Structure formats: C-alpha cells, structure tokens
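User: Fold this, then the next.

Assistant: Folding the first:
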Amino acid sequence: MYSKLLALAALASTALCQTQNLTATLGATPELSNLTTYVSLFPELLTSLGSASNITILAPSNEAFAKLLSGPAGDVIKANDTATIQALLTYHVLNGTYAASDIQETPAFVPTLLTDTAYTNVTGGQAVGAVKDGENVIITSGLGLESTVTQADVQFEGGVVHIIDTVLTLPQNISSTAIAANLTAAAGALTTAELVETVDTTADLTVFVPSNAAFEAIGSALPDLSVEALTSILSYHVVAGAVLYSSLLSNTSVETLGGGNITVTIIGEDVFINSAKVITPNVLVANGVVHVIDNVLNPNATSATPDPAAETQTPAFAGASSAPLDALTSGVPTPTAGFGGAGTETTPTAESTPPPSSTTNAAAALSPGHVGAVAVFLAYMMV
C-alpha cells in the first residue's frame, strides 16, 4: 500500500510539473537563471507569462546569454531598436508544440510567430530549420547559423521549452545573404540586372543561386551578355509563390519567374536542378529559401541533365570557358564576417538591401542602457 501511495504521489508531482505556467517553469530551470533574472526586472510582463498555448520556445541558455554580452553587441541592441528586438524574440517561438523526439534526421522547417512583413515575407511565418544530428537537435536560422539544443523538453502548461546554446539570427534579404555567403558574383549579377528589389521584396521565393565557381566557369560569356539576357538567365533561377525547402523537393518540373520550367531530379541523397547540383541547401532568407548550386542554369538549355558520377557538372552554356568575374564582382562589398555562425551579422528588414553589419554575436561592452535593451529582449522572449 505504501509503495502504491508513493507511486501516486510521484504521478501527481509529475502532473503538477507538467501544468506549471511558464514563469514557474523558468524559475525551476537552473540553465535559464539569467533569463529569469532579467524577466524579474519587468513586473508588467509577469502577468502575461504562461498565457501562451501550443508553442515551442527556443530559449538561449546562460552560456548563450554570456556570449551575447561578451561579444559585439550589434547595432540593434545598441540602438535599443525595440521593433527589431521584438521580431527577433518572436522568431524564437515556434507555432506548435514540438518535442525533441519529433525532430528527425530529415530536416524540417517549422514556422515561427514572426510574421511582421517588415522582417519577413514568408506566408505563415518565418521558419527555422530543425534536424537531428546524431544525439543532438540542431536549429538553423538566418545566415546558416546553427544552435544546438542543450536541454530538451522542459514542459510548461502552454507547450515546451528547448534550451539552446546560441541566440538565433533573423534571416536577411537575399542580396545581403548572398554577400555574407560570399556569393558575390550572384550579388553583382542581381545589381547589373536591376533585380535586387524584386528578389529582396517578393514574397515566398525559392532561389537557386550559382556559386562564384559556377559563374567563373562561364566567365567568358558574361561580358557579352545584355542586361535583358542576364535578366532572363537570373529569372530562370527563381521560383515565385512557393518556398521549396529541401524536404519539399521531389522529381518534378517547376515553373520559374522567367516563365520557363526547371527540372528537379533527386538521385540518392543528391538534388539536381537541370544539370546543376545543389551544394548548399536551405539557406533561410527573409522571403523564402536559397539553395546554392554548382552550375549556372541556362533558360535556352532546359533539357540539360545531370551526370551523377561527375564531381563538377558541365556548364550549360556551350562554348563558354572559365574567366575572371571582375565584370560582376566589381563594386560588390567584401563579406565582413563568416557564414554559418563565424560572426553573425545584423539583420536588415525585408525591404532593405544594405550589406550586412555586425550583430548578435557582435564585441563592445554594453552600457547600462544597452543592457536594458537586452533585458527587454530576453523578457519578451519568455512571453
């Protein structure tokens, strides 16, 4: 009988823990003690904590918070830009409840509560990537930044909290992302063709962006292209009206912004667009997703097919040869920080097109006013 009572007590205790509001859950989680300290500075927020339902919060750990304070603070925090801070923290809240066991080895792209069109033009909310890598759950955000879940499935009555080791980065627009990822030939081509505003502001785009090496492989043909011809080529790399993450790609034909169709072919684990191989998939941008490819697509060679055994695909432009990219890259800003987390950068709005500047992982000590801005950020993060 005594053992049964103990079992019932344990079950009751578990039930109580699972039905705690968010404030109590955070207070009981040592790894979030810095966050709860900052939340306590804002009594007006306490009444709203725990009121959310069916959400997943990606909560930066004490270590992530320490990195934020010890590294470059970023213009957003320094300027106390509450609108952008609000956008950033809503990007840490997933629309739906997702346990760690729901994340599989196939990447999933989960919508967040970030829907403000000043920062995203993705229908249903800007997404984060989530994938299981061995024993770890990895969250991908803007500029290829990866955050690792260090403690999963902290339950509260409105959903679940996953503690992460790095603050997420808002996806930038396509032109800024291209510069940060050292896709400078593509960035220069967009400028030459006067397509920057189109690709940066049009909602729900999928863009297959050739690498610098891909442009260099047909470099001899580039100086002779008219603006109209270059525009036709670039438009053939853009799918409008659909954000096609890798998990949504299949063997099919898809209409492009230029009107012609591209052919998607999946061979084993490789994805090909016509004859071009996807070499970096799922780069999240403000208005959709970018996949980097190893070949420039040719709207006049739509029947080009891949050679899966080839290390590099044959260029789709007959007669073109390798040449320097000076004509495209002249005037394009040099990337000022790494891609994929080696120096995260400030996120412009979905409408703006400046090159990236320093951000969340960015190095000056914060003044008390800036610490207050960070506190606002962290407090809202917990709402």
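Now the next one, as you asked:
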Amino acid sequence: MLLLTTLLGASLLRLSFAAYSLQDDYSGSQFLSGFSFFTDTDPTAGYVDYVDGTSTGLFSQSGGTVRLSVDSTTKASGRGRKSLRLTSKASYNHALVVIDVGHMPGSICGVWPAFWMTGPDWPSNGEIDIIEGVNKQSTNKMTLHTDPGCTMSGKDCQGNQGCSIDSGPYGANINSAGGAVYALEWTSDGMNIWGWSGGGAPSDATGSNPDPSGWGNPTGSFPSSSSCNVDTFFKNQQIVFDTTFCGVWAGDSWPSDAACSGLASTCQDYVQNNPAAFKDAYWTINSLKVYTNGAGSTSSSSTTGNTNAGNADPGNTNNNPVQSQAVPGNGATTAAATAANPVPTKPAGGTRHGGGTRGGVGSGGGRGGRPTKPRRKLRVRGRHMKQLIIETTSDDQDEQGQSKILGEAVPALGEKLPI
C-alpha cells in the first residue's frame, strides 16, 4: 500500500555511507584513565558536594562494569550530598558515541542526573544533552544549547533556553528494563540520538563497526540547516557524567511537583535528611565507546591539569520542549505514564556554567547560578522546515516505531529514501 507522507526536517534522514570504527573505548578498567573528577562548587546551585570518587569510594570498577555512586548513608551537610561529576580528557568533533547503561539514577525526588557533552567557553561551542531528567521524570529529555544564531523549527537554541525533545527511556524505566543503550551520531548533517531499553538495541550498536543506517528511526533528530549549521555551533565536545541534587531545575520545580513536594517543605530539606532515599541514585556503565568514520571525526589531545573541565550545563533551563508521543520499541513511556509523570518545566536562568569557563573561574560567559522569572513553555513545531511529499510502502515502516525530528512524528524510510 502506498502512503503519501509529509516529512518535516527531512534533511537529517540520510544514510550513513561510511563505516564506523572504534576510536576510544572507556569501558571497564579503561574508564578512569580517560576522565577527570570535577570537585568545584556546582554551578547549578545544586545541594551537592562533588568529590574525588577514588578517595571516597563513590567510584568503583569491577568485572568490566563502572559504578558512579552518591552518598546514601549519612545526613548531608556543608555543600550538600556527596556525589560525582566526571569529564572526559579527550574532546571530539563529529563522532558516534554509544553508551550501554546497566543502571542510572532512578526517578527519585531531588535527583538531577545527566550524561552529556559540552564544548569550551559555553555556549560558544555548544552542548548536547543525551540523557537527562529530574525528580520523578519518566521520559528522557534530549537538548541542544548553542550561541545565538542557531534556530531549529523556528526556535532559538541559544544558551539556557535550548531546543529539546522529550522521548526515550529514562530513570526508573531504564532500570526496570535491565538497562538501556543510547547512541549519539554527530555529523555535519546534524545530530541523531537513539535510545533502546530492555535489550532492544541493534546487535552491532556496541560492537567494533556499528552501522547506524540499519538502526531505523532515531528517537530524536536535530537536523543541520541554513538556520543552524551544526559544524559552526558544535566543536570540541567533552563527555560528562554527573548526578546533582535540587538546584535550578530539580529544586526550583519542587513546589509545583505534586509527586515530590509532599515529602518535605524544600528539596534541600529532603535531600539532606533522607540519605536512604538515594540508594538507587547511581550509574553502572557496561561500556562507553566513541567511534569515527573517517569523515572529519577527530579527538583532540586530552585536557591535562584541569579536573574541573566541562563546567557546563545539561540542565538547560526553559527549553523549547516538545511533548512527544511514545516511540514503541524504543523504550519510551506510554502516553498515560508520561501524563502521570510529565517532564518538569525548567526555569529560565541558572546553568552549570557559573562564569562560562571550564575551570569555573568565569569571565561573564555564563548566566550565573540563579534562576530568573520562568518563561512561557514553547512547543517546537516544524513550520519553518522544508516539507517534502514522498512515497513509501508499508514495508518501509520501521518496527521500532516512529522517529522524532524536533518532536514531529515521521515514518521510517530506511535505505529507500533518495538522498
């Protein structure tokens, strides 16, 4: 049966012509040699004390699995609950980044975990949020942040505001499914992000030569275009893990969060006095690999002597969010579950950047760490994207379900899309 379909942002639906090969493997015992601990004050005003994981025991590696924990046994004091934030020593320009997560911080009140990438002098070289959420959130939030001048579907992606897509497995959904694999493909054509939970990842996703052209529709897509040239706005990206508490997203949304606000008068009060509540606020990483395809994917020399590198914000405040539908087979929650635990709106202002430099000693590049008046929630639409009428057959529909291009559902095209 022929289907007439209108595509939005079709420029990103293209084939991966070059095979990928492994460049950096951070799995198991190789992880810590490629990352540095950030131990400065949290630029998002979180109630967290970032520490060196080796001296505190919050970092461990056993049997090929890396564990990043938080303190879940003592009442917090001082800067806050002890936790970890790590930044890769290497930075990248174009890459396929694939992480196999066995467990991530669950959907826990007061918790704000993220797996993300950022460039120097934020937001001049961009930020890519791959996995992120707060509190009881059940759906992943993927977000791009840039300098002024990048628009996607008519929405400005600059700074704290960013452009976001709400879709894919997150938190408790990942853990109950036994883990998830997330993959970011970054090329000159834009960003594709896939998320699979419960063993649903393609067999080659974590292998030696992954091929995204056979993976079906991505969970989220951010296409490069004349209104946002990805190569202009994203450069020298480092990989970051962190788990913070409260702050300008999880904390500021506390009073309006029906699932959390009844537990304590403030987020900080809850995090400080209920250590056992955070026993599941840990990451276990089965593997983390970065691949290149010989088409401009590079890794710069490692960042040395800067354990506070990556002082940037996955906690994009006041995104342009899309309340996307579930992606069957990709681990996204059902519409009913999403309605029960919607993605909280982030307030404007307040970032992970402090003063806008990697070492936390700012020169006016960031917005500081305090929120300003929340802005109106915006829906990302595709009205400014090129529209194409194409013909596909029912055989072209991907069994993984529908893709999201800035939140708009489109059919899978596979290898039958003429580029």
